[in-house]
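Appendix B, Record 12. Input sequence as logged:
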Amino acid sequence: IDNLHEAMVLLKMKCAPERRKATIAVSVSTSSPTCSLDPAEGSNDPFQIVISLHMENTTQLDRAITLCTNGTVFAPSTPDAGIDTLGLGTISPLISTEAPDKTIHLGNFKPHAARTSNQKSPNLKEREHLHLLTIPANGEVQVKHNLPVSRMLKYDNHLGRKDLYPGESYRFRLNPDYVGTTWWCWGDLEGDLVDKKLSAWQEGLNPEKVEKPTPAQVDEENWVLGGNPAELAFEEKTGEVGFQFVE
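Logged structural output:
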């Protein structure tokens, strides 16, 4: 892998419990128990997949954690930029509860980010296509992906709008291969990390062969080093989630 933050399936390494720095609880839900098959034109209340993250256990109380979300289900979907997180296989197909052979496939693409001049910057904050997310020390953070019926059917070659009916129920779950991170550190992007540089160097894997800032550089240039991804655990708490189509 030339750039770990572009990897589409996470490399997950085992870690002894005593080395674990924190455990992140992950849950998934929908913005509503029902999804309208024919929403009103111009509706500003789209059906959404909602992913919530909160700190379940930590070795540093009252400290937030910041993650790189690229290549995970936590990455934002930005259609205008051609980024569709749900089209990367990050969640399962939508499976009919009445007829399990009837499924809606959301896509399983493996896109490559456009090369930019700052893509190899040692400071992750300077990388144009890299996304960061802070999980607060207390409370939770949510990531929301719009999923109207038109998007559900966008990449499915077998089903169309005529094949979906009011009263039908569907279920899905997160794909565990996309629950995790390739880089993390202690701190809050809007708090103690505001004036910090986030070093692409990290404990454990260093696929980009980034040079580690010296202690003097860390102090003088405000660098923050990445922690070992193996020492951050993610536990998916929800399992399957269901919703029903309505008119």
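The radius of gyration is 20 Å.
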